[in-house]
Amino acid sequence: MSTAVESYGADAKPRMGFFTDTTICIGCKACEVACKEWNLIPEDGRLWTGESYDNTSALGANSWRHVAFVEQRKPLKLDGEVAALDAEPLRWLMESDVCKHCTHAGCLDVCPTGALFRTEFGTVVVQEDVCNGCGYCVPACPFGVIDKRDLPRSPDDAPLALPIFGKKEDGRVWKCTLCYDRLKGGHEPACAKSCPTDSIQFGELDELRERADKRLEKLRAEHWNGARLYGNDPDDGVGGFGAFFLLLDEPEVYGLPPDPVVPTAHLPKLWLNTAVAAAALLTGIAVSFFGGRE
Amino acid sequence: MPSLGTSFGRGGATDYQQDLMNSDCITIMGSNMAENHPVGFQWVLEARERGAEVVHIDPRFTRTSAMSTKYIGIRAGSDIAFLGGVVNYILENDRWFHEYVRTYTNARVIIDDAYVDTEEADGLFSGWDPEQGKYDATTWQYKGMQVHGSGGSPEEGVKGEQSHGSHGGLLSHGDPPEEDWDLEHPRCVFQILKRHYARYTPEFVAETCGCTVEEFLWYADTICKNSGRERTGAFAYAVGWTQHTTGVQLIRSAAIIQLLLGNMGRPGGGIMALRGHASIQGSTDIPTLYNILPGYLVMPHTEHYGGLQKYIERSTAPAGWWGNADAYIVSLLKAWWGPAATKENEFCFSWLPRIDDDNSHYWTVQQMLKGKVKGYIVAGENPAVGSANGRAQRLGLAQLDWLVVRDLVEIETASFWYDSPEIESGELRTEQIPTEVFFMPASTHLEKDGSFTNTQRLLQWHFKAVEPKEDCRSELWFYYHLGKKIKEKLKESQDPKDWPVQHLTWEYGEQGGNEEPSASDVLREINGYDDHGQLLAAYKLLKADGSTSCGCWIYCGAYADGKNMAARKTPHWEQTYTALEWAWSWPANRRLLYNRASADPDGKAWSDRKELVWWDAEQKKWTGHDTPDFDEEKPPDYVPPDDAKGPDAIAGNHPFIMQADGLGWLYVPQGLEDGPLPTHYEPHESPFDNPLYSQRANPRRQQNKDLEEDPYNPVAGEGGSELFPYVVTTYRLTEHHTAGGMTRFTPYLSELQPQMFVEVHPDLARERGLEHGGWATIVTMRSAIEARVLVTDRMRPMKVNGAVRHQVGLPYHWGQRGLVTGGAANDLAHMALDPNVHIQEVKAFTCDIRPGRRPRGPKLAQFMDELRAEARAARATATRHEPEETRKT
Questions:
Q1: Of the given ranges (A31-35, B397-401, B421-425, B657-661), which has the lowest mean pLDDT?
Q2: For residues B669 and B141, is the Cβ–Cβ distance under 8 A?
Q3: Chain B, 198-227: which have a CB under 8 Å from a chain A CB?
Q4: Which of A52, B74, B464, B639 has a beta carbon 3.0–4.6 Å from A69's, enabling a disulfide?
Q5: Cβ(B322)–Cβ(B658) under 8 Å?
């Protein structure tokens, strides 16, 4: 429904997306850097976090790809002679997170200016020259992806100025565009292009889902510990992700919500409740004005 | 890479990274391939997805371990013990590839009666001279064979770095004098090997390396299972192997295993040497090293200088491709001095510089410290951060008259005179440093044309994308215009010492407003011309009569037929998997070296599954998926006649054509400084005794016993060793490049790893009171640095000789400059070196770690003085004496 690429008529394209396969992610962060290079995103601060090798910590206005690192005392595979040899199993999960480009996108639903829109590829993009920085979309994202870019906090702070715009930032919201400009030109997004192991796979969503099912089947046959798909189900709370994942543990382990629901899904019920309340109120008023007259 | 050079004939990776996908078992050891070669690592993952075992054996659990099918933790510096255990397992359990070993290796060769093994002499080979601290290799030779060296001179032949190609031995018509094809003669290489490794049992491995017996046995069985006719296994290594005082012998251990299992020269086999920089292979092929000339020709030496004829005699092997060394050197001289080089003046051979000593990097630093070096040009390096013992490096720089640094940014080496740690501590004062520093901004690879020779000997051309900014210039520009200016100044000189410069060929096209010299003109000169000015197609066409010129014989063919072969960009999906039309690799565009060995002695593929190159009996030539690494028309049953010389003296079933006997060398009779076989020694600094011998460390390692700036931690058995109880190892991260000049100044990379940290196990953190996210100070006799504490299970404690020992992990990218700064790990390291290649031992030494930040300002110098005094006093109470000091063998 709200993918709505049909509104493009003859210009509509097959829905494009990412399948991020964490079993072949080597945690090189080339996706983070390529994304920043292509999209001219400012540096996101030089804070050492101590969170394994992750110093990006989360997606935000200035980080549109984020590689999570999770160290676990668990075996990578559950069967076979190798697993039996490991008295103290250890594995290091790496996952490159990104905007999910939801089928039902909360950010898009609540945007009052029309800055957020659904592209002909079925992706969700902010138009930076339309966004007025109202920020309604920020709490509407069940993943905490879309984010306002901070203004300089004090006169001493260097302004987060981008030379290309020639003006101070900014207060607007920013997130992954699935490299809309590159797609327009027939290129794959920068992160997928730079991924040396094809952990980030770009393509038509239908085809990616089939590929992911086969991949999961193979991994299960090989007894990979905890292999599962995340966001591939069109019936989930956001109608399925345009960018979905193959994980090796519960989504929470990677800092992902286990059962994301688009907040606007509650709108009809909310409006109904409001209507009922309003009706009750009106009835009450009417009764107080007219009912009591004797 | 003398280890690969002496074992197989050429000092380069024997394989190419794409071929790893054909492997059934990849052993990654001494390398963190996923982090440091992430692009090439895709082929390892491809192999894993096809069902191959990927085993990572390393002191640390890294991103490579995370992607492997099995990780085996061993303590830093115990690799030879582990690999020696594998050799023993193969021999004891009869898992070696019989036909391959008998025919293609020197297992059958009988060794000199006087050879004495370390197993008989408590850790020393025969020929040890305690006075000189060196070996005389005479007794290591094939029985009945002379050491290869010029008559009457005392030297022991081509050694060390010069043996990137082993240059063979002095074998007439390519056959060792005495052999036993049954491999039963007690002095044949096979039996010597058996005795040498007999004590490397699984239990010995587990106790010495800190892994379990079960893990070791699983691994040994796994690589054996994945070798043979139908299957192949590969090794990938990097500086985790080289940067030890036993580094060369460590790589030799892998060579022995790969020869015994028959994995050399075959698809999915080989030894993949992973080099660290974009063109580090190129910088040894066309060397920035002091002791070799382009194409691994040896540098003339003062000691046995006797003109061109003597040089050729010394460089030429009677058999194998070094038999044509005369053509290579004469063509090189013609490339450099053109018409001035004539037969009458020995092609200007006397104009070449001659070496008279070790002139390596660390030796030079020592001379600086003694005030013997006036000027220094540093290009593409940051020794103040990237070289061992940073303090000694910087104190050395402060003794120079002048210093030129060429880099993208003002790195620590250029700024030491006003912001180094020694300025902070007061050991150096800016106003007292005489060094005049010139910083020359360099252009990046995007701002110039040129080629990289990558880790797999592949020359890949890149094109300039943008003009360099302001006064940034390419290296080529710098040296070309410097040369022009010097030539101009010397134009009128009548002094014969200026002739070499006056006559040097220096004609390259200039382009653009910057007068950038043409990089393709340079590649053409390297490729070489015939006497009609036509570009040569292959090194076989080189002649010794002065009719050809060639700047580097192994690169001959890179510009064949006037076409820049390095610039070919046909993608792999438009051709066969060997991708022979993508760029160009030396030699002769061969991708997999020694590939004659992919066929059996009769010239047939060992199996359909592993076919690569074979003898086509109808067409009477070698053919296959790769360029054959063999004389194309030499049949497998060719037997050289008695008077055959050079390549003609190599038999049709001897695949290692650079070796004088055409064989893979399990045992290296000459070419190495520290022995014909690898044997386990402890690192120069180690908290452990050598479980095998009273000789603790490599006796031949280079030490600086009298150098005040390079003090050593007390070791096992010495007083004060308890002051430095932990093993420390240094390494790189994906996010940064070596000494940081290219990454610490870049926001997008700096933010990914913004601070120096130290990795420790939770148990060590408890033992030393270290807090995750807090600060720690790491201490050696050289220096003390601070780092943020990263507590992680990935740094496993090791149970060694019954006791649990901790290891400390330190990335080495940071210094005092850049967007992100931090302590330089190399400040902690010492300058004891491997004797063959003079490389530092930064992968295993000892340290202490304490909670909190380091002393600041003058207090740091005071702290270090007190620590050194304490350690020296403790050592004096119990000093260790090694056999190396007194025993002659």
A1: B657-661
A2: yes
A3: 212, 214-215, 218
A4: A52
A5: yes
